[in-house]
Specification:
Pathway: Cofactor biosynthesis; pyridoxine 5'-phosphate biosynthesis; pyridoxine 5'-phosphate from D-erythrose 4-phosphate: step 5/5. With 241 residues, the protein is α/β, with parallel strands linked by helices. Helices cover 47% and strands 16% of the residues. The model has no long low-confidence stretch (mean pLDDT 96).
């Protein structure tokens, strides 16, 4: 079974757009966990346009009520992000090579180029007992490098898979991701996946049981406009079960 971690960034975006605490991040997180989700993900960006650093602290306190469930904090490891993560001590930290002005994540780490910057960051996080994940393109040749710099897992960046899913390239592109996932497993890494996954495409990606966890937020929130939040979370759990 692949675990579902629900990214609540879009809940934060709705909340922040009106200057009120509605919808409430903690209420939605609790509701999601009660439905059976394995974890909660947030990706606080420097401008805090959706999830905020305060959310990180508050979600950590909430997760204490749910033993065995996890908090995953994603982001670019600048000084403020690392300060917050090292204080909060989430179960998992996913490092993403975002420019501060990016609309959304759009590429994985070039570990060969960035290894000198990544090694000390990963070491600091692991000293706190935080599982470290590197956001990676589905290139099997780079998985061993992620292990070499100290990562515990990789998160495969799945936009290319999502784009190919409605086309006749669905099968070969999925196979490319399966090969990358197996390369990560062979290197001693766990495998997560995320970005543009939805109710239509998530099952195929996870069907070969190489993916430990998926992080889904944008599509889940959009699908909830049609089906309702509870129904959508339940549908994902059924797809991944």
């Amino acid at each position: 079974m692949t675990h579902l971690s629900v990214n609540l960034n879009k809940i934060g975006l709705l909340r922040n757009s009106r200057g009120r605490d509605y919808p409430n991040m903690l209420t939605m997180a609790q509701r999601t966990l009660e439905l059976g989700a394995f974890g909660i993900t947030i990706h606080p960006r420097p401008d805090q346009r959706h999830a905020t650093y305060r959310d990180a602290y508050e979600l950590k306190e909430l997760l204490k009520q749910y033993p065995g469930r996890e908090l995953n904090i994603e982001g670019f490891p600048d000084a403020k992000f690392l300060e917050v993560v090292l204080e909060v001590e989430p179960d998992q930290c996913t490092l993403v090579p975002d420019d501060p002005n990016q609309l959304t994540s759009d590429h994985g780490w070039n570990v060969a180029r960035d290894q000198d910057a990544l090694r000390p960051v990963i070491a600091k996080l692991k000293e706190k007992g935080i599982r470290v994940v590197l956001f990676m393109d589905p290139d099997p040749d780079n998985m061993a490098m992620a292990k070499m710099v100290g990562a515990d897992r990789v998160e495969l960046y799945t936009e290319a898979y999502a784009n190919a899913f409605p086309t006749d390239q669905r099968v070969p592109v999925n196979q490319q991701y399966q090969i990358a996932a197996q390369a990560a497993l062979d290197a001693g890494l766990g495998v997560n996946a995320g970005h543009d996954l939805d109710l239509e495409n998530v099952a195929l990606l996870c069907s070969e049981q190489r993916i430990t966890e998926v992080s889904i937020g944008h599509a889940l929130t959009a699908e909830a406009l049609e089906f309702g939040w509870d129904n959508v979370v339940k549908r994902y759990l059924e797809q991944l079960g």
